[in-house]
Write a structure and sequence with these properties.
Blueprint: H1 3-21, E1 27-32, E2 35-40, H2 52-59, E3 64-68, H3 74-82, E4 87-92, H4 95-107, E5 114-118, E6 120-121, E7 126-131, H5 148-153, E8 156-162, H6 164-171, E9 177-180, H7 186-191, H8 194-199, E10 203-209, H9 216-229, E11 232-236, E12 241-242, E13 254-261
Parallel strand pairs: 3-4, 3-9, 4-5, 6-8, 9-10
Antiparallel strand pairs: 1-2, 7-8, 10-13, 11-12, 11-13
Length: 279
């Protein structure tokens, strides 16, 4: 085969790979906390999400961070760029999303103090049907109504379930900050964290969802039952007020709550950060 023909075939193969990846490159360089980082395309949003600034504020008071529902690892990358010595445990029910989260960290030389767990964090041992799309892009959920792309195409997998308490026992890492973003299964995660709650040492940043199968009022009611049983207090971060009644957030499709031991004061300075503030 001639050199020219070989080069042409190689160029065609490269174009085909790029096409399959959905663009000219699967990676992009973006700014995060004042640093240029190389990540898989789509990892870092152009605009801040509701909870970005709240998460960064709470991270700066934490030594061990557990990211449940890490997806592509945006918060994990934020955590280790802010403080490379901080321990990070990333968990997701999507193998592909978890692999991308790990890749993003390694791409940026952040491979120390890291652990990864594949599984659906719950209060029981077993497995569930998890709705998720290929590529780890869209959010997955145990509720088909909250993973519409996957449900529309019938994409689901069987995923092992594991409790947060058992993960802590296995790793020996006791978190002081836990982020929970699991598309409607938040109270399942909390029910599997009773031993951690009993130590009264951890804050939890919870993104509470309302799939069709579990309306916000009911989800909030179950969450408040858990806080009362474990001497925790919930705060509605949009208004920086204690959440005492599910009616306060019944109108929300999703919202962010801070759970912490009831004896702890509300973090000083957190009330100055509005929903959606830049980091």
């Amino acid at each position: 085969m001639s050199t020219g023909r070989s080069s042409l075939l190689n160029m065609r193969r490269m174009r085909r790979r790029r096409s399959l990846l959905g663009g000219s490159s699967p990676y992009e360089d973006v700014q995060l906390l004042g640093e240029t980082v190389r990540v898989r395309t789509g990892t870092i949003h152009a605009q801040p999400d509701y909870d970005d600034a709240w998460a960064l504020f709470l991270l700066r008071q934490a030594i061990v961070f557990v990211d449940i529902g890490c997806n592509r690892g945006r918060f994990g990358l934020m955590s280790v760029i802010d403080a490379p010595e901080r321990r990070l445990l990333s968990i997701d029910a999507s193998r592909e999303a978890l692999a991308i989260a790990a890749e993003n960290l390694v791409l940026n030389g952040r491979a120390d103090q890291l652990r990864f767990v594949w599984g659906f964090v719950s209060d029981t041992q077993g497995e569930i049907q998890f709705w998720t799309t290929a590529g780890g892009g869209a959010a997955g959920s145990r509720y088909s109504s909250h993973a519409r792309t996957a449900a529309r195409t019938g994409q689901h997998v069987r995923v092992p379930t594991v409790s947060l308490d058992s993960i802590i026992e296995d790793t020996g890492w006791i978190p002081d900050l836990v982020k929970i973003d699991v598309e409607g299964a938040e109270t399942e995660v909390l029910r599997g964290a009773s031993q951690l709650a009993g130590q009264q040492t951890a804050r939890m940043l919870v993104e509470l969802h309302s799939p069709q199968e579990l309306p916000m009022h009911k989800n909030a009611e179950m969450l408040l039952e858990w806080t009362r049983a474990h001497t925790y207090t919930a705060y509605y971060l949009k208004d920086h007020v204690e959440l005492a009644d599910p009616a306060q957030i019944a109108h929300r499709g999703r919202c962010h709550l801070l759970l912490q031991p009831s004896e702890w004061p509300y973090p000083e300075g957190l009330n100055k950060i509005a929903q959606g503030s830049p980091i």
